[in-house]
Design brief:
Layout: H1 3-9, H2 18-28, H3 32-38, H4 44-55, H5 69-72, H6 77-83, E1 85-91, E2 94-99, H7 105-118, E3 121-126, H8 129-142, H9 144-159, H10 166-174, H11 176-191, E4 196-201, E5 205-212, E6 215-223, H12 227-237, E7 249-257, E8 260-271, E9 274-282, H13 284-287, H14 291-294, H15 298-308, E10 313-318, H16 325-336, E11 343-347, E12 357-361, H17 370-378, E13 384-387, H18 393-404, E14 408-413, H19 421-427, H20 435-438, E15 439-451, E16 457-459, H21 463-474, H22 478-488, E17 495-497, E18 509-520, H23 523-531, H24 535-545, H25 550-559, H26 565-571
Parallel strand pairs: 2-3, 10-14, 10-15, 11-12, 11-13, 13-14
Antiparallel strand pairs: 1-2, 4-5, 4-9, 5-6, 7-8, 8-9, 15-18, 16-17
Helix pairs in contact: 2-3, 9-11, 10-12, 11-12, 17-18, 23-24, 25-26
The structure holds zinc ion (ZN).
Length: 576
Amino acid sequence: MNILEILAKKNLIEENKVQDLVSQAQSSGITLEELVLSLKLIDEDTLFSAKSEALNIPLKKVDPGAVSLKVLNLIPEDSAKYYKMVPFSQQDRVLEIGMVYPEDPQAKEALSFLSRQGNFAFQVFLISISQFEALMKQYRQLKGEMTQALQELEKEIVQEPAQAGKGAMRRITEEAPVTKVVAVILRTAVEGGASDIHIEPTRENVRVRFRLLGELHSSLILPLRIHQAIIARIKILSSMRIDENRLPQDGRFSTMVDEKQIDFRVSTFPTALGEKVALRVLDPSKGLKTFEDLGLQEHNLFKLKEACAKPYGLILSTGPTGSGKTTTLYAILHELNKEGVNIVSLEDPVEYMMPGVNQSQVKPEIGYDFASGLRQILRQDPNIILVGEVRDKETASLVIHAALTGHIVLSTLHTNNALGVVPRLIDMGIDKYLIPTTLVLVLSQRLVRRLCDLCKEKINPAEETVSLIEKEMNQLPPNVHKIVLPLLKQKDTVIFKAKGCRQCGSSGFSGRIGIFEVLSMTESLGKLILQDPSESAIAKEAKLQGMTTMRQDGIMKVLDGITTIEEVLRATEEYD
Ligand SMILES: [Zn+2]
């Protein structure tokens, strides 16, 4: 049943006009709703109330001023315009979307595609056409700055002759409009707290996505014809070759955003549809964290400080990519960075500039890799060496050798947990007899989202959650168990869930925090490594030593109201 038939049934329009109106709408290429409104056959409120009733979808009135750009950005503007659907609020992870034509199968399909891509759930409301237009106006107002910059840029490009080659491209990028577009992209990322920006061409347009708290959000859609100008501008900023578009390139640049010096690490990558650019936002004020900010609890902090006080030895930070292990290494390096100490680093890439540290970037393509760099560094008499990652046997053996000859060595290793480090080193050809005397400390970590303090909500968890919490907490070593005892003795276990407010952009979370396990070398662990260096034997020893697992550390943070149980379980899936 179409909307006219619905209206006719309610005696709101004459039934014998329906057929005529349908063909009239078809020939003029507008919808039935638009037609009856333009002919003033019915007023908008009545029309949409009837539609709401017939479709059984609630009709919603929204104050456009209360809708944030962050929410609007979850649906690209061109999709919003085409399918007449606008997101207006986000509760937990559910996006509330107003649609003028919720019955349209194409619109429904587009929405479910976007929700899979953007990883959000949604709830649909019916909105009127004028409500839709008011919301789109808000969209444009919020994006006004970008739109204006884009329009200027488009004018510029049109004025350039079509045969314009490399020289013209360089000229365009030095002029204002593209500079403004790129500046708006960078500022949007920094202000929104994004860690990465992806600029990629699709068949129809250029998509700009921001990574926020580990998740990618599709945020800006730009016209395809400005793609080259944007890429060229970013390449010039990062001192890359603008005429090279078939090979990946790496670079970096530094610029002021909101009166803060921000570094961007840039890499380009050729795709079938053109070059893609990824920028990592390196906000120095975010990069350097204190041990407490990282989320190291007292018993772990104690072990770490003890290790830092040793004159030599190897400290390894482990975890998958994106687990925050490099940030942790920088915090340790910062602690060790004192006058009179010679610190040299070999990194790939250099993520944060640290005053007083002699940082260098490895370049495997010219033969300067971790291993050759390390050999060179050892001749410069450093006290402390940071090696970005132990990736191969040669680097592993050089790192052990450096620790053995009186240096403090910091590095990262790819293992799932702290227990896997010793077997992994042996696997990489390290003689097990060398491990007890060189390896000082292993930290393993994951990142979980931190609850927004302004809106988090107390809940009484389900029975199965309570028993999971109790099971993990009862296995804590005695020295740590006594810390959580008061929390567990409460009548009902209280934890928190994310809610969402204006301050946290309706996400319910604000920033991230690490959950850790820290294993230190002890005499008994050293003896064990010589006899049975298997992960299971080390696990038993770690427990005797009083090590808490990442999951236990996370659950302690749940009981402290720092994060949610879902976050911790998700980050520590391998314990299931
Ligand atoms: Zn909040």
